[in-house]
Structure formats: structure tokens, C-alpha cells
Amino acid sequence: MDEPALIRAHALEETRQATLALVERLDDDVMHRPLDPIMSPLVWDLAHIAAYEDLWAVHRLGGEPLLHEELAVTYDAFETPRAVRGDIELLDREQALRYMDDVRARTLDVLGRVGPSELHDLVILHELQHTETMRQALFLGSQPGGEPDALPSVNGAIQWLDFDAGEFEMGAVADGRFVYDNERPRHVVTTGAFAIQSFPVTNASFLSFAEGGGYEYRPWWSEEGWAWKQCYDITHPGDWAGGPPSDLGAPVQHVSWFEADAFARSQGARLPTEAEWERAATWDQGPALHGIGAVWEWTASEFTGYPGFTAYPYREYSEVFFDKGYRVLRGGSWAASPRVATRTFRNWDLPERRQIFSGVRLARD
Known about the structure:
It is globular, with a radius of gyration of 21 Å. Helix content is 36%, strand content 10%. The chain contains ten helices and nine strands.
């Protein structure tokens, strides 16, 4: 291999080692059963990673037949939705790991033959995103790997940062690296004047909200959010079953969009739009937002395509989720690789979801 190919091979290996390190300490029972009804068995994720890599880095890039065509449907995320993955026959742990090894050997062979491609970046980002998803499952199943060792903490008051009305270029820069289709095309956006907090909402602030009747005061909740809260008897963030975390200065996590929205209203504030968030996060006159990468931050924006959006390399990554009630999250989390969670990366989920490592940063007009 030449040097560019070796660099890409190293990135593939580095990513794989992180995946293996996550699961090596887990017993087979944890690997084979769904840890929560909304999550996949972890062995499904492993084999899915292999199948995805074989499809894009071997079959599509190298023109080779799939290694196990008979497994393609089982490990296709749309053909086999999460709801059924715990009820069908899957490869066991040993078989899934062997599948990953066998596909990787094919990937490296194609890499040496055709050279580096942005499809290798796609495969790397996909695996990194699945390791975060697996950590979500581990959180729900109260297993090692589902909680951070520590999060950044703030002492004292959180500052408000003011931005005048103005325009900026939103979206990923076309610099040759792979970016997801929903980050493109880069386009000019104008925001009104707004203020945004310098640090995400802390456990201390959310504790005051919860203890002060925030989950009982109807005017702070949207109609849909109140119905969700009442139906599931929600009284605290998703990781507070044993009480709030000891570090009250750290960002609160595992809150839904509904909770984030209600909290913002309780403070006489609101959630930032994703345009406001990106403008502040990419401000070219110095760092504005602190704590980025600790928790995903809910925005007010519904997930949809940018003007001129074109699906690439397949519409099922983004387009099928547009305009269906999903809310955008920005910034990344402690479980997300910086390779994935850039300042222009757009995450999304349903407003009731709390398995994600999600928090909130406030904004106001």
C-alpha cells in the first residue's frame, strides 16, 4: 500500500479496536439479548457493521460479490427494524466477530487495489456511530460503558453570549472530506439577533426545575410533551432513577426534547434553532460555546433538508426522516467520536427519546 492507503487502513483499524474494546468485557448474555425494547441486541450491531462495510468498501467500491449475501436482509437496518431484531435468528458473538474480521481482510485487499476512497470514510463514520448507539443500549441495560467517567463541569454563573442579526454560511465546507448529505449544500442563512448560553444546562439547574415542580406545572409543557410525560409518569431525567448525579456542575443528560423545551420555558428562554447554534459554534472571532461534545444539545429545529439537498450516497440515511417530527441535536456527546461530531454534523431523534446522551443549551431573543 502507498502512504494514503496506509493512513486509511490505520483509521479503519483504530476504529475497529475501539469497537472491540467496548464489547470485550461484556458477557454473552448481555451481547445476545436486547437490553431495551427500543435497542438492538449488540451482536446485531456487530454483524451490521460488518455487512455495511462489505457492501460499501468491498462490493460497491471493489466490485466484489457480497461475502454473505444470505445475511444482507437480516443486517439491513431498514429491512430488519429494531422491533424484530431480538426475535429472529442472529449470528452469535463468535460468528459476528469472525464476520467482521473476514470483511476487514476483503476491505484491505480492495483498499490496496483501488486506493483510498470517501467510501472508506463512510464506513469509519458508520462504525463510530454504531459504537455510540451500543453505548446507549448499555446505558439502558445498566451495563459498563453506558456512562461517562466524567463530564466537563462549570462553577458559577453561565454567561449569555449576544449575537446581532446577521448572516453566515451554514453547512459543511467542500474540502474533500466525506460529509453526510444532510450537511450540504453550504448556504447563506440570516438569523435575527439572539443570545445563547456559553455552557449547557447543568444538573444543578435541572434539579431546581425538578424539585420546584417543573414536571407538574402544565403551562411550561407543550400539549404533546405533557401527554407523553403523563403517560409514562416522567418525573426526572432518564439517568436520575437513583437520584441526581454527584457533579451538579456537569451538563444534564438523558433529557428528551419535551423536557428540554419545558425547562427552557421555565427559564423564560427557548431552545436555539440549529442555525443559531451553528452560527455561535462556528463563530470566527474566537470560541463562543463551551462544553461542546459533552452532551448532544436539542435544538428547536425539525429535521429537514437544506435548500438544494441531494441524497448521497443513499436516501435512507437522511431523506426518509425529513419532515416527520424528528428534532435536530447538535454538538456531539462524550460517547461520540470527534470524527463524527463536527460543528456542522446534524443528529436527530424523536422528541420523546431519552436513551441518547442528550442535554440542552438555552437561547433567547
